[in-house]
Specification:
Order of helices and strands of chain B: HHHHHHHHHHHH
CATH topology of chain B: MetI-like fold
Number of strands of chain A: 0
CATH class of chain A: Mainly Alpha
Largest sheet of chain A: none
Largest interface: A-B, 82 and 87 residues
Largest sheet of chain B: none
Oligomer: heterodimer
Helix content of chain B: over 70%
Structural class of chain B: mainly alpha
Low-confidence stretches of chain B: none
Number of strands of chain B: 0
Shape of chain B: globular
Strand content of chain A: under 5%
Distance between the termini of chain A: 40 Å
CATH superfamily of chain A: MetI-like
Number of domains of chain B: 1
Chain lengths: ~280, ~260
């Protein structure tokens, strides 16, 4: 028994760290979302649910996250399919390079898009020179611009998550289907995609959560102007107008609940995919 | 082969989409003037030189390295041993670490920032300490993955048993046998964590603000004042990330290779 106690000493600092810097802050956040200085209140939640401005922020965040996740998924689904023609070492190199770009997010990423599509960006000038009217009116500092940036940081993550799922589709299955007379299209429609579907759903929910929590690139591009949940929380916290940390807590709790649902969905679908691929 | 033409298009698009912004930004760091023309008017090292002469950038870089490096060090000192002990001696509790990993992954910086401010802003704890602690926890997913994979790759349990059977003490078996075997995987996880933290902006900006100016906060300030300096910062950042990614992939290959022998 003493040896088990000795071993526990090695775990203790970890428990203390996670308690102090994860559990306690989250608890304080939940408590503060229900308090108004002298007692318990549901007022902050009531304010969130009746404020059309905050609800709009949720709506904007959800649409932006879902649309960017779907577009990134579609692009990477086809891209992974095309990648399969390369040998394994080449594919691994491609994944490594894509992982490098996954570090390219937040402020640096926002800046890169300013260089390309900002007011005097490379493409903005190009479009003006070519006189493409419809494209010159495009603003990076709007929903469309944010969407492009969000798709960018979704792509490497999506590729990293889809690749192993795709990899699990075994050549024998394709051969068997082909022997039985199925075309490639039929194979994917009847066998490949249904097997991968839970994995795709799981990937979608990770991507969705990833975008819901993103803050830096939207902040760098639009300051506090574009109404997203994460931006709202930041603004209420730092008090660009005046700080309302309790309201920020309530919004953060609701965002946290959204994240947990997304993560549970992805956990569930990962388990299901594993079973499918066995 | 012809059938894949449609999919190939997406693949090429993906590569272009991922690389165009990076290349353009790097190019911009060396451009003399690039406001009215599609291609820059000339090339220069002026901006990079200016950046490295700016003491506030050097200081910001130092702060970033100190903060991210410090958090990684603390994680190696306190989290890695805990993961070792749980995986090797209490495997039934491993699902609790996995749950913690998912939770940490699920709560983004902007949520954690609210919690840190509510918990520690009014009781005299220096907020930089709070951010440091939160950094240590936020890299748990990468540290766990790195540690877990390398333990699995080398069959840690059997390795320890074999060493002890051959007369090594527990400490010797751990320090002389296990640690060298899992070192590459651990180091890769540490570098990955470092590169993630080096790019962190939300926590440091919301919780501490410009009182502790990291590279990311410096970059945010330069965004509105000087595009050339900002792109030089991004250039330096990208070079650093490139080097780190390269080392990580080398280490991962090595630890995988070691497992196959």
């Amino acid at each position: 028994m003493t040896s088990k106690k000795q071993l526990f000493v090695w775990i203790l600092p970890f428990l203390v760290l996670i308690l102090l810097f994860f559990i306690v802050p989250l608890l304080y956040m939940v408590i503060s979302s229900f308090s108004n200085g002298d007692g318990f209140t549901l007022g902050h939640y009531q304010e969130v649910l009746t404020s059309s401005y905050i609800l709009q922020g949720f709506k904007n965040s959800i649409t932006l996250s879902a649309v960017s996740a779907v577009i990134a998924l579609i692009i990477t689904l086809f891209a992974v399919y095309a990648m399969m023609r390369f040998s394994e070492p080449v594919r691994e190199r491609i994944l490594m390079i894509s992982n490098l770009t996954s570090n390219f997010s937040g402020i640096p990423l926002a800046f890169a898009f300013i260089v390309l599509l900002g007011n005097s960006g490379l493409f903005t000038l190009l479009f003006e020179k070519w006189g493409i009217e419809s494209l010159t009116s495009f603003s990076l500092y709007s929903w469309g611009g944010l969407l492009l940036v969000y798709i960018y940081f979704q792509l490497p993550l999506s590729l990293m998550l889809l690749y192993p799922i795709y990899y699990g589709i075994q050549q024998q299955w394709k051969d068997a289907a082909a022997l039985l007379g199925a075309s490639t299209f039929q194979f994917w429609r009847k066998i490949g995609v249904p097997i991968m579907l839970p994995g795709i759903v799981g990937t979608f929910s990770v991507l969705f959560a990833n975008a819901m929590g993103a803050y830096a690139s939207a902040y760098a591009l639009t300051g506090s102007n574009y109404n997203l949940v994460a931006i709202r929380i930041g603004a209420l916290l730092s008090g660009d107008i005046f700080a309302q940390p309790e309201l920020a807590s309530a919004i953060a709790v609701l965002l946290g609940v959204t994240m947990i649902i997304a993560m549970l969905l992805s956990e569930w679908s990962i388990k299901k995919t594993r079973r499918n691929l066995k | 082969m012809k059938k894949k033409g449609f999919a190939d298009l997406f693949f090429v698009f993906l590569l272009l989409y991922l690389f165009l912004p990076i290349l353009a930004t790097m190019f911009y760091a060396f451009a003399t003037n690039w406001n009215k023309t599609v291609l820059p008017e000339g090339l220069t090292f002026k901006w990079i030189a200016m950046l490295f002469q700016d003491s506030s950038f050097i200081e910001a870089f130092g702060r970033s390295v100190l903060l991210s490096g410090g958090a990684v060090m603390l994680a190696l000192l306190f989290i890695v041993p805990a993961i070792f002990v749980i995986v090797l001696y209490f495997p039934k509790y491993e699902k609790w670490i996995q749950a913690a990993v998912v939770m940490v992954y699920a709560f983004p910086g902007v949520i954690l920032a609210v919690g840190l401010i509510r918990a520690y802003a009014h009781i005299g704890v220096p907020m930089i300490v709070a951010v440091l602690g939160a950094y240590v926890i936020s890299i748990l997913p990468y540290i766990y993955q790195g540690t877990r994979n390398s333990l699995r790759n080398v069959n840690a349990r059997q390795l320890l048993d074999a060493a002890e059977l051959l007369g090594a003490s527990k400490a010797q078996a751990f320090l002389k046998v296990l640690l060298p075997a899992v070192y590459p995987g651990l180091f890769a996880g540490a570098l990955l964590s470092f590169s993630v933290l080096f790019g962190e902006f939300v926590l440091i900006n919301l919780v501490v603000g410009s009182r502790f100016e990291t590279v990311q906060i410096y970059l945010m300030k330069k965004l509105s004042t000087s595009g050339h300096i900002a792109s030089s910062v991004v250039f330096v950042y990208l070079v650093l990330m490139g080097i780190l990614t390269f080392i990580i992939s080398m280490l991962t290959k090595r630890s995988k290779g070691a497992a196959k022998v």
